UniProtKB/TrEMBL annotation:
<feature type="domain" description="NADH:ubiquinone oxidoreductase intermediate-associated protein 30">
    <location>
        <begin position="12"/>
        <end position="62"/>
    </location>
</feature>
<protein>
    <recommendedName>
        <fullName>NADH:ubiquinone oxidoreductase intermediate-associated protein 30 domain-containing protein</fullName>
    </recommendedName>
</protein>
<dbReference type="Pfam" id="PF08547">
    <property type="entry name" value="CIA30"/>
</dbReference>
<dbReference type="InterPro" id="IPR013857">
    <property type="entry name" value="NADH-UbQ_OxRdtase-assoc_prot30"/>
</dbReference>
């Protein structure tokens, strides 16, 4: 059985913002590096623009290699 690294060495450039602005909201989030001591997640959640449905988040962009390997695993379509 081979192994696959899920999270490679940390690079903030491989994370992306996913806030309610994609749906017309006004929430904002950012990640800030802390010099080898992790990260800070910062943001402002606006629950008024979308009637209480605001969200602010960040997500890791997996490599195409990892995505293609997961699709070929049993149990995945």
């Amino acid at each position: 059985m081979s192994t696959v690294t899920i999270f490679p060495p940390w690079r903030i450039s491989e994370w992306e913002t996913v806030d309610d602005r994609i749906r017309g909201g006004k929430s904002i989030s950012t990640l800030h590096e802390r010099g080898g001591d992790g990260i800070w997640f910062c943001g402002t959640l606006d629950i008024t623009a979308l009637g209480g449905a605001g969200f602010a988040s960040q997500r890791f962009r997996f490599s195409d290699l990892l995505v293609s390997q997961n699709r070929n695993t049993r149990g995945y379509g």
